[in-house]
Design goal:
Blueprint: H1 2-44, H2 50-57, H3 61-86, H4 91-108, H5 115-134, H6 136-144, H7 150-179, H8 181-202, H9 218-225, H10 234-238, H11 241-271, H12 276-325, H13 331-343, H14 346-360, H15 365-394, H16 396-440
Helix pairs in contact: 1-5, 1-6, 1-7, 1-8, 3-5, 3-15, 4-5, 4-8, 6-7, 7-8, 7-12, 7-14, 11-12, 11-15, 11-16, 12-13, 12-14, 12-16, 14-15, 15-16
C-alpha cells in the first residue's frame, strides 16, 4: 500500500511539474507569435513602404525617414510609464489595448495624406508595439522563467521576429507591387489585429503564483540565486552606479547598432560599388545568422551567465567591424560582417531584458527596463545623426574605426556593470542570509 501510494504521489508530482513547464513554454510560443506577426509587421516592414509612399506623396527621404526616429524615441520615452502600468492593469487588457493601437494604427497609414499624419500615426503604432513587445514580451518571459531558464526562453521568443521577417518581407513587397502601398498597409494591419486578439485572449497571462514559474535544475538555481531574492525599486536602481554604467553601455550599443544596421547598405553600394546581388546575399545571410544568434545567445546566457556571454558577443561584434573595414578588398568580408553581426544580434535584443531581470529583479522590472531601453534609443538616434557628419568630414574608414571604439566602450561598460552587480548582489544576499539567521536564532 505504501509503495502504491508513493508511486501515485510521484506520478502526481510529475504531472504537476510537466503541466507547469507546458504552461510556461506556452507563453514562449505566445511571445514568439507576437514577435513573428504583429510586431514584425510594424517593426520590420516599414522600410518597404518608403519609396512607394515618397513617390506617391512627394516626400523627401529625410522627411519620411523621421518615422524611424519616432519609432525609436517614442517607445523609449514611454517605456518606464508602460512598465509601471503593467503592475497595475490586467495583462490581457493591456495587451488588447496595445494590440489595437499597433494594428489599427498600421491600418490607418493607408488613409494618411499629410506628412504630420504619418508622424502621428507612427507614434501611436509604436506605443502599441512597446506595450505588446518592447516591454510586454520580456515582462512575460521574466515572470514565467527563473534565472537558469529564461535566457533560452527569451532566445526562442525573439527568434519569432527573424522567422516572421523571412516570410513577411516577400509578402509585403508582392502586395505593394500588385495592389499599392495603401492596400498593403490596411491588409497587414488587419493581419496584425487578427493575430493579436486570439493570442491575447487564449494564451497571454501572468503566472498565478510562484509554483507556476518554470525553474531549471535545483543545483543550478542554487548556484545562481543562492535562494535569496534581490529586487530593486526604480528609485533604488537609480541610486546604483552600475545601473547608470549599464545604461551608458547600452547607449554605445545603440550607437554601433545604428551604424551597422542602417548605414552598411549605402556603404556597400555607394562607396564600395558592390553589386545588388552581393548586397542581397549579405541581407539573407544576416537574417539566417540572426535567427541562430538569438537562439544560441539565450542558451549562452543560461549556461555561462551575463559576463562570459557578453565577452563572446564583444568578440563577435569587434570581428564583424573589422570584416566591414576589409570589405573593400573582397566581397567575402561583407558576408563575414553580416554573419557575425547576425550571430551577435542577441546583444541588443536580449541583454537589456536579461540583465535587468538578473541584477535588479522583478519588483519594478518593467519600469527599470523601460528606462534602460531609453539609453539604447538615444544612442541609436544620435549615432544615426552623427554618422553622416563624420563620414562627410573624415571619410568612411575613419568613421568605421570610430564605430569600433563605440563597440569597445559598450562592452567594457556592460561587462564592468555585470561584474559589479554580481558582486554587489552577492554581498546583499550574504547580509540578508545573516540577518535571517540572526532572527531565527
Amino acid at each position: 500500500m505504501t509503495s502504491i501510494g508513493g508511486e501515485n504521489l510521484m506520478n502526481n508530482s510529475t504531472i504537476g511539474k510537466n503541466k507547469k513547464i507546458a504552461t510556461g513554454w506556452l507563453m514562449v510560443i505566445a511571445c514568439m507569435l507576437v514577435q513573428a506577426i504583429p510586431y514584425c509587421i510594424v517593426a520590420n516592414t516599414q522600410a518597404l513602404y518608403m519609396y512607394p509612399v515618397m513617390e506617391a506623396k512627394g516626400f523627401t527621404l529625410s522627411q519620411f525617414s523621421l518615422i524611424f526616429t519616432i519609432g525609436t524615441i517614442v517607445p523609449a520615452l514611454i517605456g518606464p510609464f508602460i512598465g509601471g502600468i503593467y503592475r497595475k492593469v490586467n495583462t490581457k487588457i493591456l495587451y488588447l489595448i496595445g494590440g489595437i493601437l499597433l494594428s489599427c494604427g498600421f491600418m490607418t497609414f493607408s488613409i494618411a495624406e499629410k506628412l504630420w499624419q504619418f508622424y502621428a500615426i507612427a507614434g501611436v503604432v509604436q506605443v502599441g508595439a512597446s506595450i505588446v513587445a518592447g516591454i510586454g514580451v520580456p515582462m512575460l518571459i521574466n515572470a514565467w522563467f527563473d534565472e537558469t531558464s529564461k535566457g533560452k526562453a527569451m532566445g526562442i521568443a525573439y527568434a519569432g521576429g527573424s522567422i516572421g521577417n523571412i516570410f513577411l518581407q516577400q509578402l509585403v513587397v508582392r502586395t505593394i507591387s500588385s495592389r499599392g502601398y495603401a492596400h498593403s498597409y490596411f491588409t497587414f494591419g488587419l493581419v496584425a489585429l487578427i493575430a493579436i486578439i486570439p493570442i491575447t485572449l487564449f494564451m497571454i497571462r501572468m503566472p498565478k503564483n510562484e509554483s507556476e514559474i518554470v525553474r531549471g535544475k535545483a543545483q543550478q538555481k542554487e548556484e545562481k540565486t543562492n535562494s535569496v531574492d534581490i529586487s530593486y525599486t526604480l528609485k533604488e536602481a537609480q541610486k546604483n552606479k552600475y545601473f547608470w554604467m549599464m545604461g551608458m553601455g547600452l547607449f554605445f550599443v545603440g550607437t554601433y547598432v545604428s551604424a551597422y544596421s542602417v548605414q552598411y547598405a549605402a556603404y556597400f553600394q555607394g562607396e564600395l560599388g558592390l553589386s545588388a546581388s552581393v548586397i542581397a546575399t549579405t541581407g539573407s545571410l544576416f537574417a539566417l545568422a540572426s535567427l541562430f544568434g538569438n537562439l544560441v545567445g539565450g542558451i549562452l546566457f543560461d549556461k555561462l551567465g551575463a559576463i562570459k556571454t557578453l565577452a563572446i558577443g564583444a568578440i563577435a561584434v569587434m570581428a564583424s567591424g573589422v570584416a566591414l573595414l576589409m570589405a573593400g578588398t573582397s566581397p567575402l568580408f561583407a558576408h563575414v560582417h553580416s554573419i557575425l553581426k547576425g550571430l551577435a544580434m542577441f546583444v541588443y535584443m536580449m541583454t537589456p531584458a536579461y540583465m535587468v531581470g538578473t541584477f535588479f529583479g522583478n519588483k519594478e522590472y518593467g519600469s527599470i527596463l523601460g528606462l534602460i531601453n531609453l539609453n539604447f534609443a538615444l544612442g541609436f538616434c544620435i549615432g544615426s545623426a552623427l554618422f553622416g557628419v563624420f563620414v562627410g568630414n573624415f571619410g568612411y574608414n575613419a568613421t568605421w574605426i570610430g564605430v569600433l571604439v563605440c563597440v569597445a566602450l559598450a562592452f567594457t561598460l556592460l561587462i564592468t556593470a555585470a561584474t559589479g552587480m554580481t558582486k554587489a548582489n552577492k554581498e546583499s544576499m550574504e547580509r540578508l542570509k545573516d540577518k535571517n539567521s540572526a532572527k531565527i536564532a
